[in-house]
Write a structure and sequence with these properties.
Shape: elongated
Helix content: 25-40%
Oligomer: single chain
Largest sheet: 3 strands, parallel
Distance between the termini: 64 Å
Strand content: 5-15%
Strand order of the largest sheet: 1-3-5
Radius of gyration: 32 Å
Structural class: mainly alpha
Number of helices: 5
C-alpha cells in the first residue's frame, strides 16, 4: 500500500474514532451538558434544540462513514495485497536471469515472501535452492522443473501436485517431507538421505537414485520404468503394487535386505 495513502487513511480513521467517542459521550451525558452549557445560551438558530438535532444527525453520519470507511479500507487492503503478490511473482520471475553466488538465497527469500502472502503456486523452472536449510515450506501446483536442491536440508517441506522433472537432489537431506502427486521424471537423487520418504502417487520414470539412503522408503504403486537404484540402501523399502520393477534393478542396490517386492516382481 502507498505509504502516504496508508498514513492518510489511518489519520482519517483515528479522527473519526475520536469524533465518535466525543459524540457518544456528549449524548450519554446530555442532561448534564445541556444544563451546564445551554440553559441561557442562544445565538440565532444555535440553541439547545439545534444541538439535540445535530447530535442525532451526527450519529447517523458517523455510522454511515464507519460503514463506508471499513468497506473502502477492505478494498484497499485487497488491492494492496494483490499488488504485493504481483510484485513478488515478478521478482521471482526476474531471478531466472540472475546467476550470483547468492541466487539460492534470493530464490528462497522470494518463496518465503509469497508464502507469507498465502501464495503456494509458483513458477520457478531452473530455480536454485541449493546449500540451504529449507524448513516448513509448502508449495502446490507449482512449476519447479530442473530446480537444484543440491546439498540442501529440507525439513517439513510439503510439495504437492508439482512439476519437478529433472530436478537435482545431490547430497540433499529430506526430513518429515511430503511428496504427493509429483512429476519426478528424470530427477536425480545422488547420495541423498531419503530415509522413510514416500514416493507413492509420484511419477518417477527415468529417475536416478544413486548411492542414496532409501531405507524404509515407500514406492507403493509407482511405475519404476527406467529407474536406477545403483549403490542405494534399500533396506526395508516397500514396492507393493509397483510396476515395471525387476529384481535386477533392486539388486543393483548396496543393501536390499527386507525389501517388500510387488506381488509379481518382474525377473
Amino acid at each position: 500500500m502507498n505509504k502516504k495513502l496508508d498514513t492518510l487513511m489511518k489519520v482519517t480513521i483515528f479522527m473519526l474514532i475520536i469524533l465518535s467517542i466525543v459524540t457518544v459521550l456528549i449524548t450519554g451525558f446530555w442532561e448534564g451538558v445541556s444544563n451546564f452549557v445551554f440553559p441561557n445560551l442562544t445565538w440565532g438558530l444555535y440553541n439547545k434544540d439545534f444541538f439535540e438535532n445535530l447530535l442525532v444527525e451526527m450519529h447517523g453520519g458517523i455510522i454511515d462513514l464507519l460503514i463506508v470507511g471499513v468497506i473502502l479500507y477492505g478494498f484497499e487492503i485487497r488491492r494492496a495485497k494483490s499488488d504485493s503478490i504481483k510484485e513478488a511473482k515478478n521478482n521471482l520471475a526476474d531471478l531466472r536471469y540472475y546467476s550470483g553466488s547468492d541466487a539460492s538465497f534470493k530464490f528462497y527469500r522470494a518463496l518465503r515472501l509469497l508464502a507469507s502472502l498465502k501464495v503456494h503456486n509458483v513458477e520457478m523452472p531452473n530455480g536454485s535452492l541449493n546449500d540451504l536449510k529449507i524448513k516448513s515450506l509448502s508449495l502446490s501446483k507449482s512449476n519447479l522443473a530442473a530446480t537444484d536442491f543440491s546439498r540442501s536440508t529440507l525439513d517439513s517441506v510439503s510439495l504437492q501436485n508439482c512439476d519437478l522433472q529433472a530436478a537435482q537432489f545431490f547430497d540433499s537431506k529430506l526430513r518429515h517431507c511430503i511428496f504427493k502427486n509429483l512429476n519426478l521424471k528424470r530427477s536425480k537423487f545422488i547420495k541423498a538421505d531419503l530415509r522413510g520418504m514416500s514416493f507413492e502417487s509420484c511419477i518417477i520414470e527415468g529417475a536416478v537414485f544413486k548411492d542414496s539412503n532409501l531405507q524404509s522408503a515407500i514406492f507403493k504403486g509407482v511405475d519404476c520404468r527406467g529407474v536406477s537404484f545403483k549403490g542405494c540402501n534399500l533396506r526395508g523399502a516397500s514396492f507393493r503394487g509397483a510396476q515395471n520393477l525387476t529384481r535386477n534393478m533392486v539388486e543393483e542396490a548396496e543393501d536390499y535386505r527386507f525389501v517388500k517386492y510387488p506381488e509379481r516382481a518382474d525377473d
